[in-house]
Design a protein that fits this description.
It is built from one helix and ten strands, in the order H-E-E-E-E-E-E-E-E-E-E. The strands form two sheets. Strands 1, 2, 3, 5, 8 and 10 form a six-stranded antiparallel β-sheet that branches.
C-alpha cells in the first residue's frame, strides 16, 4: 500500500513538472480578468478616411500577383508586399479575423514602408497585431505617424509570425483596411 502511494505521488509530481516545463499549468482566481490586447480595435466601416485596399485588375482579368483585394491569403514573413497607396503622413492599418496555417496563431508583425523613387525604401517600423487572432470579427490596428521626404506612397509587408521571421507558417486575414485620415 505504501509503495502504491509512493508511485502515485511520483506520477503526480512528474505530471506537474512536465506541465510546468511545457507551460500548460495555469491558475485562476475569482478576480482574474483577461488581459486586453494593446492593438484591440472595434471596426467601424463608417470611419472617415477608411478604405479597403483593392488590387487593380490586370489585362487578363485576374489580380496582379503582388497585390491583394481586401484580404490576405498565404502570406509568410517577407514573401509579399501590399499594393502601394498615396500617403506621406498618417497611416492606420487594420486586420480583421486573422488565421495562421502551420502554427497556433498568436501574433503577426506588420511592417510599414515608405516607397522612395530611385532609392532604398524607408522602414517605418513594425506593429505587432494580436487581437485579430482572438475570434471571428476581431480587429487589430496599428498607427504610424511620420513623414519622409522624397516619397509619397506606402505599402506593408509581414515582418514576422509569432515573433519569428523564419517559419513555415502563413497567415490569412479576412479583411484588410487602410486609413490615411488621422481626424477620426
Amino acid at each position: 500500500m505504501r509503495k502504491h502511494r509512493t508511485q502515485i505521488r511520483a506520477g503526480l509530481i512528474a505530471a506537474v513538472t512536465a506541465a510546468a516545463l511545457t507551460g500548460t499549468v495555469t491558475t485562476a482566481g475569482a478576480d482574474d480578468t483577461a488581459p486586453v490586447s494593446e492593438d484591440a480595435h472595434t471596426f467601424d466601416p463608417n470611419e472617415e478616411g477608411l478604405f479597403e485596399l483593392q488590387a487593380p485588375v490586370d489585362g487578363g482579368g485576374g489580380v496582379q500577383t503582388r497585390n491583394f483585394t481586401s484580404s490576405l491569403s498565404g502570406w509568410a514573413p517577407g514573401s509579399k508586399e501590399s499594393r502601394h497607396w498615396a500617403d506621406n503622413d498618417y497611416t492606420e492599418i487594420q486586420f480583421t479575423t486573422c488565421e495562421m496555417i502551420g502554427a497556433a496563431g498568436k501574433s503577426v508583425g506588420v511592417k510599414l514602408w515608405q516607397a522612395i523613387p530611385f532609392s532604398q525604401d524607408k522602414d517605418m517600423g513594425t506593429k505587432t497585431f494580436t487581437n485579430c487572432f482572438t475570434g471571428e470579427g476581431k480587429t487589430s490596428k496599428g498607427e504610424w505617424n511620420a513623414h519622409y521626404e522624397d516619397g509619397d506612397n506606402r505599402y506593408f509587408t509581414i515582418a514576422h509570425l509569432n515573433g519569428s521571421q523564419t517559419t513555415r507558417a502563413v497567415i490569412n486575414v479576412e479583411k484588410v483596411y487602410v486609413d490615411t485620415t488621422q481626424a477620426d
